[in-house]
Write a structure and sequence with these properties.
With about 200 residues, the protein is an alpha/beta fold. It is about 35% helix and about 25% strand. It contains five helices and eleven strands. Strand 10 (about 145-150), helix 4 (about 155-170) and strand 11 (about 175-180) form a beta-alpha-beta unit. It binds D-malate.
């Protein structure tokens, strides 16, 4: 997968896995990563699917309606890529913390839903429920931060609460941070994610 890797100044720190939103690139979340964990290495991936020229991590049939088969396939593809990247760049595969926005948060959520040891934590900015009716793996010890908008037209507050319940039900300690700026990723939401990161991982 197209990606970039930046070695951090502290190789002991968790590695941040950056996953952009629809139409983004692997460069989009670099400033966010630096605010969350300035000394961490960063692995940032570009989605393999194109929707009218816009990179995404999996296909959708309409806004908010996922192509479930493609979601499952792309989640497996990303999971395999992470194993390869850990070997290639020499980082601890168990130390990955996802930072995803929108479509990127949805594929991060899908990694959590499908693979028990894919991530050691996740910062999900404006995520949806990636899939329904599946048994989640044990996520105890995998802290998750959800940044949500009480007026987000894409991820409703009900869907945020549903995701929180599913992750908590699988044992994950979940923190939800609410804002009122629709689907936007704001500076104050990034600050809240950074504070959560410091409390859980620094
Ligand atoms: C998705 O397809 O993952 C969601 O609709 C969010 C987005 O617009 O990318």
């Amino acid at each position: 997968m197209r990606h970039l890797f930046e070695q951090g100044t502290n190789p002991q720190d968790p590695v941040l896995l950056l996953l952009h939103g629809t139409g983004g690139t692997e460069r989009d979340l670099l400033p966010v990563a630096r605010r969350i964990a300035p000394a961490s290495s960063v692995l940032s991936v570009r989605g393999n699917v194109l929707e009218n020229g816009m990179p995404r991590f999996f296909r959708r049939l309409a806004e908010g309606v996922f192509d479930e088969e493609d979601l499952v396939f792309r989640t497996g593809e990303l999971h395999e890529f992470l194993d390869q990247a850990a070997a290639e760049y020499g980082f601890d595969r168990k130390s990955l913390i996802a930072v995803g926005y929108s479509n990127g948060a949805n594929i991060a959520g899908s990694l959590l839903f499908h693979y028990p040891k894919a991530l050691s934590g996740a910062i999900l900015h404006h995520p949806m429920v990636p899939r329904r009716g599946v048994q989640l793996p044990d996520l105890s010890g995998v802290p998750c931060f959800i940044g949500a908008g009480s007026n987000d037209p894409i991820c409703s507050p009900q869907e945020t609460e549903e995701l929180e319940a599913l992750l908590s039900g699988a044992g994950a300690p979940v923190t939800v941070h609410w804002e009122r700026f629709g689907h936007q990723l704001t500076s104050s939401e990034v600050e809240a994610a950074a504070a959560w990161y410091r409390a859980n991982f620094a």
